[in-house]
Amino acid sequence: MGNQQELIQHLEQSGCTYWENESMKEHISFKVGGTADLFLKPTDSEQCAAILTYCHENELPLLYLGGGSNVIVHDFGIRGTVLCTNGLNDLELLDGCRIRCGAGVKLSRLCAFALEHSLSGLEFAWGIPGTTGGAVYMNAGAYDGCIKDVLESCEHITPDGQRQTVTAADVKLGYRTSIYQKNNNLITSVIFQLNPGVYEMIREKMDDLMNRRREKQPLEYPSAGSTFKRPEGYFAGALIEQSGLKGATIGGAQVSEKHAGFIINKGDATASDILRLIDKVKQEVFDKTGVHLECEVRVLK
Ligand SMILES: Cc1cc2nc3c(=O)[nH]c(=O)nc-3n(C[C@H](O)[C@H](O)[C@H](O)COP(=O)(O)OP(=O)(O)OC[C@H]3O[C@@H](n4cnc5c(N)ncnc54)[C@H](O)[C@@H]3O)c2cc1C
Question: Which residues does 266 contact at the CB level (< 8 Å), separation at least 6?
Fold first, then answer.
């Protein structure tokens, strides 16, 4: 059976960049969490396939990270390997209205690229942090749109290293869910189908949505955006506020005073503070309103 040192030798041969005992705080928007034993940044899908195959064959634990804007890492860190997709950053216009995009491309760069080519459909994503791969995994969305509206197909690698291409229908996108939350495939690249638009109108919508974010969201503090999914028929923020939890604090974690749907890191929060506050909010909202809140943020473990 292989081990981490052998994996490192493989990485050195393939030219993949890696770090040992990497602080995960630097890589996640909540700014909490311990170290990962090994942190990898492959730059193409060949390197990814080799890593997945090696870890699969040798039963080494492997986790995937995009922009880190929807995850928490425990304070004790990750005893295993984290593959960060940042290096998968190709972006190209395929024909009039289609864009192929590496999974590590930031949504902000993708949206700016679509605007540059007067392509409409991704305006909703302007202001959502993170990468394209993470956005597909979560079916990220805001205001009147989500990834499901614009996804044509995905390329991914299965845990045993096979490269496959699937259509949007195969990805089974639903409210903040996708098949990738079940199958542990690594998304490597994505094709979006957009519509021809008018530059000024696209720009105006993007500016409007960004202004609404700045007005309503506590963007000055580290967070992972909305902590909870929207329960059917309700708004999580309103339920939390009704339950008297606005401003509730555990250690350095707080239910934002500006937007109760966000848990924020006031500066010195630990992952444990945040996780305990999430549990408290879920429990008290259920006790007071009878509604179960489901956490949208994922624990990387
Ligand atoms: C201020 C703020 C505002 C936000 N606003 C919104 C919003 O309006 N709408 C919204 O939907 N979300 C929002 N979010 C949450 C977050 O930005 C999205 O969920 C985003 O799509 C996550 O992408 P990421 O690359 O950061 O994923 P990460 O946080 O890195 O990962 C999320 C999950 O996806 C998996 N993953 C990542 N990349 C891949 C890949 N290539 N292949 C397979 N699995 C992968 C990870 O393992 C993890 O389980 C917000 C977050 C913040 C901090």
Answer: 221, 249, 252, 253, 254
Confidence tier at 14 by pLDDT (50, 70, 90): confident
CB-CB neighbours of 204 under 10 Å? 12
Q: How far is the CA of 90 from the centre of ligand 1 (A)?
A: 19
Query: What letter would DSSP give residue 77?
Result: -
Query: What domains appear along the chain, each with residue ranges and CATH number?
Result: 4-87 (3.30.43.10), 91-201 (3.30.465.10), 218-299 (3.90.78.10)
Catalytic residue among 29, 178, 226, 256: 226
Task: Considering the candidates 176, 223, 243, 256, report the single residue annotated as catalytic.
Answer: 176
How much is the pTM?
0.97
Query: CB of 222 closer than 6 A to ligand 1?
Result: no
**For ligand 1, is residue 33 a contact (CB within 6 Å)?**
no
More confident residue, 97 or 144: 97
Where does residue 267 rank: exposed (0-12), middle (13-18), buried (19+ CB within 10 A)? exposed
Q: Is 298 in the pocket of ligand 1 (CB under 6 A)?
A: yes
Residue 294 designated active-site = no
Q: Is the pLDDT of residue 1 over 70?
A: no
Question: What is the arithmetic mean of pLDDT over 110-122?
Answer: 98
Q: Is 72 in the pocket of ligand 1 (CB under 6 A)?
A: no
**For the chain, percent of residues with pLDDT exceeding 70:** 99
